[in-house]
Amino acid sequence: MANIKSAKKRILVIETKTLRNKAIKSKVKTMVKKVEAAIAAGDKAAAEASLKTAISEINKATSKGIYHKNNAARKVSRLTVAVNKMA
Fold first, then answer.
1. How close are the terminal C-alpha atoms of the chain, in Å?
2. Distance CA 79, CA 84 (A)
3. Residues 54/38, Cβ–Cβ less than 8 Å
């Protein structure tokens, strides 16, 4: 356990940021799962609608520094390709 006041504060701040990051990552994963579920069900309209919200959430997470921009681009690209492959 930290003895120095600034180290104790860093622990508290990191804890807060970790919770925020986990919440945002969880939201992104949920949105991605919704897109994948719509693809599996074969519902193109629902897939496109959920893709739009998923891309938005991924971009928000990237702007907050939770995902690296290349990681986000890869996620968006893979989802988009999967939706576009639907008949």
1. 58
2. 9
3. no
Tens-digit pLDDT profile for residues 57-86: 999 999 999 999 999 999 999 999 999 998
| Selection from 24, 32, 33 nearest residue 66 by Cα | 24
Q: Which residues, other chains included, contact 17 with Cβ-Cβ below 8 Å and sequence gap of 6+?
A: none
Name the burial class of residue 50, with classes exposed (0-12), middle (13-18) and buried (19+) by CB atoms within 10 angstroms of its CB: buried
CA 85 to chain centre: 22
Type of residue at 87: A
**How far, in Å, are 41, 59, 87 from residue 64 at the CA level?**
32, 9, 35
